[in-house]
Amino acid sequence: MNVVAIGGGTGLSTLLRGLKKKVGEGIDKLQAIVTVADSGGSTGRLREIYNIPAPGDIRNCLVALSDQEEILKELFQYRFKGEGLDGHAFGNLFITALTDITGSFMDAIRLASDILKTKGEIIPSTIESIHLCARFSDGNVVEGEEKITEYGKENPDSKVEDIWVEPKGAKPPIDTLAAIESADVIIFGPGSLYTSIIPNLLIEDIRDAVKLSKAMKIFVVNVMTQPGETNKLTAKAHIDTFIEHTGIDNIDVAVVNTKMPSSELLNKYLEKNQEPVIPDVASIARSGIEVFAEDLIGEKEDFIRHDEEKLASILIKIIKNR
């Protein structure tokens, strides 16, 4: 069974940490197609200097899939302090250096994968330096993944009406299309809807390949709303928004969390205008999508997010049932 996960950010990393334990136990081949449109922090600064795709989400996924000793994982996530290097993640610098040495972003990822002994393959959605752009309902156009989210936070009454990548003709590596073509299962999410999941499908060749694919398509709905992106969106509205902006309307299965977080942790999130995504399971089912709704959250380190083992287990169950 070939499984391809599409996304970025902490959501994709969580998914991969769980799924890598299933490689050889229901999953024969695991591949992740990762967004490279990030424009903030260490990644944004390196992009400006070296004109490369964003390495940040790639780094997180490499660490998530790593089967190497803990110290190497910590090294790749280590952030420097002090003037000049302040805020830079070692992994970002490492990938940038390998890219500069080899002359290839793809080769840099392969070498980093070998070093970390990953139990799966990381593939960027493109090796071009792309930027995410969005037009809001108030008419303003915002460029940059980080700026789009910030604008949404500052203008909660204005919603994203259109979203695209520049340059519009950006192409994916052949490895990306090959992964989609050979996939038995394609998983979207979890993760930031507008800035981690959708950007991958804004690249025309990827979108077309996914539409043509006969693979089972699973959409993992986020457990919490995200300020600036998905305020007030129910589970069904997450899926509808994804379909609206990607045109991929042949989702087979939706995975939805049904458990409420603890009151203490929930209150911390409510103060930040984040709330649990309402699991409107019946609405999803009426649209013809099969729904799997279970307790899927973990509460580690004061965060409410998917529990990697619970999520991986339900996905394996879905795959085996199919």
How would you briefly describe this protein structure?
The protein has 322 residues and is of the alpha/beta class. It contains 14 helices and twelve strands.
**Order of helical and strand elements:** EHEHHHHHEEEHEHEHHEHEHHEEEH
- Strand percentage: 15-25%
Give the termini distance in whole angstroms: 11 Å
CA radius of gyration = 19 Å
Please give the share of residues in helix: 40-55%
CATH class: Alpha Beta
From the spread of the alpha carbons, the general shape counts as globular
Q: What's the domain count?
A: 1
The CATH topology label is Rossmann fold
- Average pLDDT level: 93
Please, could you describe this protein's structure?
It is a single chain. With 322 residues, this protein is an alpha/beta fold. The chain has 14 helices and 12 strands. The strands form 3 sheets. Strands 3-2-1-7-8-9-10 form a 7-stranded parallel beta sheet, with helices on both faces. Helix 1 links the parallel strand 1 and strand 2. The longest helix is centred in the C-terminal third of the chain and has 14 residues.
Q: Top keywords for this entry?
A:
Rossmann fold, seven-stranded parallel β-sheet, alpha/beta, three-stranded antiparallel β-sheet, 322 residues, single chain
Walk me through the topology:
Elements (H helix, E strand, L loop, with lengths): L1 E6 L1 H11 L9 E6 L6 H10 L5 H10 L4 H8 L12 H13 L2 H12 L4 E4 L6 E6 L4 E3 L1 H10 L5 E7 L7 H8 L3 E4 L4 H9 L2 H9 L3 E5 L14 H12 L6 E5 L5 H8 L10 H6 L3 E5 L2 E4 L2 E4 L1 H14 L1
